[in-house]
Amino acid sequence: MSTPFRTPSGGRIDRATTVEFTFEGQTLTGHPGDTLASALLANGRHQVATSIKLGRPRGIAAAWAEDPGGLVQIEEPFPEPMLLASTVELSDGLVAHGLPGQGRLADVPDSARYDAVHHHVDVLVVGAGPAGLAAALTAARAGARVALVDEQSEAGGSLLSGTERLDDAPALQWVAAAVAELAASPEVLHLQRTTAFGSYDDGFVLALERRTDHLGAAAPKHVSRQRVWRIRARAIVVATGAHERPVVFADNDRPGIMLAGAARTFLHRYGVLPGRDAVVFTTNDSAYDAALDLHRAGVQVQAVVDARPEGSPRRREDCELAGIRVLSGAVVTGTQGVERVTHALVAPFADGEVGASTAIGCDLLLVSGGWNPAVHLYSQARGRLRYDDALGAFVPGEDLDGLSVTGSAAGVLDLPGCLADGQRRARAALTALAIPPAGEDRLPAAPEPAVPAAPLVLWRVPDTSGADGSTSFVDLQRDATVADIARAVGAGLRSIEHVKRYTTIGTAHDQGKTSGVLTSGITAELLGIPVQDTGTTTFRPPYTPVAFAALAGRDRGRLFDPERVTALHEWHVAAGAVFEDVGQWKRPRHYPQPGEDMAAAVLRECAAARTGVGILDGSTLGKIDVQGADAAVLLDRLYTNLMSSLKVGSVRYGVMCGVDGMVIDDGTVLRLAEDRFLVLTTTGGAAKVLDWMEEWVQTEWPDLRVHCTSVTEQWVTFPVVGPRSRDVIGAVFPDVDVTNEAFPFMTWRDTTLDGVPVRLARISFSGELAYEVYVNPWYAIAVWQRLLEAGRPYGITPYGTETMHVLRAEKGYPIIGQDTDGTVSPHDLGMAWAVSKKKPDFVGKRSFARVENQNPLRKQLVGLLPVDRETVLPEGSQIVEFLADGQLPPPPVPMLGHVTSSYRSAELARPFALALVRGGRERIGETVHVPLNGTLVPVEVTGSVLVDPEGARRDG
Amino acid sequence: MQLIACPWCGPREEVEFSYGGQAHVPYPDSPAELSDEEWAHYVFFRDNTKGRFAERWNHNAGCRRWFNAIRDTTTYRFESVYRLDDPKPVTP
Ligand SMILES: [Zn+2]
Q1: What is the pTM of this model?
Q2: Is A846 within 8 Å of B58 when comparing Cβ atoms?
Q3: What are chain A's domains?
Q4: Distance of CA B2 to the CA centre of its chain
């Protein structure tokens, strides 16, 4: 297969190997070292896609990430949308097609691996062009710990695109020697195919390494596809180069129109001629290199169109020697062609006026409007930009602490200048780090550059008669034009950020790499203000798109968040438990039997606990061991009730409030010794309560002799619940006298089972006679099975969290965080009994006395019984009341409160709910309404305790 | 992501820390003797300083210790960290 636009020799491609790829269904060939873009061009293919809004043909317009045209979807080896043909390295079997602005995500899971690595260095150099290599060598030679990252497949930067010479040899020989020297330096990490995409505080840079993308289907499975490097650098040298800037003119978007520098890259790096007949349109000297190089490679350069009145006398001479026509004081005003440019319309240009145009036939139109330093990383680090009038570009305006910019990213556009500047910046960074520079740190000898003729800053070619700027594209990806900017300015927008959002310029895939500064320039021109005053839009990470899969790394699926399971997890799984997430814990929600749904299972489990015996895995309960001579003092200050009076061997329920007097957690406290308590917290509140205790001990009461330690995972907890629980506990622990007299409610006892220490506590979260069994997790399954065995005669029934919730709600026990929301005091919960009147102070006490907290119309916890005995009110439902005349008040209807917990009760044989209701306790006996599905459900307000309000069952 | 210098552990990643609000707001000696307004000032009112601000921080995913810091709220930069029993540094 012939690739008609491949040069006979040269380039960085492996001509000995041919790879096959498919584009838009057509099988084509290329070589390793090609990008998809260079391979397409080698096959004579410029058009890649059509544009998103207007459907205009679009092609490859640049050779790297700044390309606004060549957007593709990859199908093989793995579907991936929105990549640039110019940055996709060619691999055998690649299948791709062009995209009109929007891609398609894969509908199969990505089986590739992604990972992340942390790395710490003295000096991070971003960019391995001449300035970056010089900086990295200087830092490495001084013995500093260095990282050098560069987004291309090989080092060299702009040297890969040209014919420069260093030390009297091709510059790439110096690049190879520099890379070898860095490889031999033990403290240097050198990564290619690695894009530093974000710079953050304190020298933190994120970089994406594409490790196997270029290998295509041959990528080894065990190597991560992409890796995010999380680099912390004491000093950063940004050597990210510059992007060539186009000039805007009518119909500047046709395939075959590209940046002049890109054509040079395709020629020298990939051995590709991007056309046969070229017109070069420029405002500066750099595009002459492209014209002359293409001419030497056999391209007919029809004309160099230089907008400057005098052009460049020196470069004109070069062109005349080569026989290239130069039209100074001329511009390209438009183009012809449909799927490919066929003519450039060239007109004289003087004093801002455009004359009559002539069509020059061409299949390639190269454009250069100057160079924009790639200041993204500097700007992300909050560096201020300064508009440089001569360059027509924004350059770094100040030195940042720990971050400096060098080379063409800093506006230095000649090779010896870049080398010297890279070395100088690295030396300054070393000095700041107090690392002495190496004695020997030679730069390669570069030919003295000719002084270029001053560039002209030209954002756009003025409209010729009849043109309105509606085909003068500023952002090709968004189909946004000069006319759109004019409309934005006409609508009164002044801020460049507003213009961006009005026109959508710079919001596409390329984030305005070529369009951003043009927009600033054109906006300033239309407003008649200096470009410095419009400024640029904010540069935000990422510099180039990063796949979510790469950012997620290994934190996906089961590794997304830690999963905590109890010692009985396998048993629960085998028993067919349906799990729910409670914080990070996996807890059995219910254990359905064949044919049961959750409602049926829960009714069965509840009935067992209320009439026989049930058992729960309550191991997730938070447990904090509070020890020390002042342990009781601490608990007295943090709980609303008195803990110091608790006897060793006893248990007390306690409520904890914030300083605002609102409940933050509740639970029971076991006194283990005079100077030791075991504090039980809610499952979700365990970490927060430990934090809370430590905060007070450290920040307010450092004199207290007390230590708090989480022991949640050191004990499993099995509540054995129901009227037959005493029989079960008595059978399993024969050494314990389980009578009420010997082992009363709210006490605990230690015992042993076959020599294993076990703690039993008479704590009930259901209102039933109940014993909590505590044991070391190693013995969890053995103890659990003995309890099940002993309970078999009584039909012992394992139950899950749903049944636990129904049982506690029937008793009016609130769940902090479900029945409360941070605005609920113990009094609102009807727990004034748990608030000590004896203690002079405790956290929250003073707030209880605030006038607002005495308001009888505060929301209070009450029970609700739907009058129809049928409706299970959705949790979160609002509650309203009728006026005296039986009508709803006019809108907005006042809300009395909301349903916090709602279940179907086996015991009550009807649904019920808990709710926070304004002045709720005063409303007991009233009927209020809950809006539901367009109707109003009447509900009776009751006390919060609906089952066994006398508490007769707790002793069995 | 910033580095925060824990007085006990040295510079660590920001994600290891949690913010604890304004520093040097001691729990009142006798809350019962305060008016509702005075008490509300302790509970709810904090300075909203632009510039240097004395703050409490907790190295909760590290040594779990609380400490104080002077941080510039306009630049986020930490100017100094100090232990709870150290006096508030005099800032220029
Ligand atoms: Zn620490």
Answers
A1: 0.90
A2: no
A3: 1-109 (3.10.20.440), 111-246+370-444+544-560 (3.50.50.60), 276-368 (3.50.50.60), 473-529 (1.10.10), 568-619+715-807 (3.30.1360.120), 622-710 (3.30.70.1400), 853-942 (2.40.30.110)
A4: 16
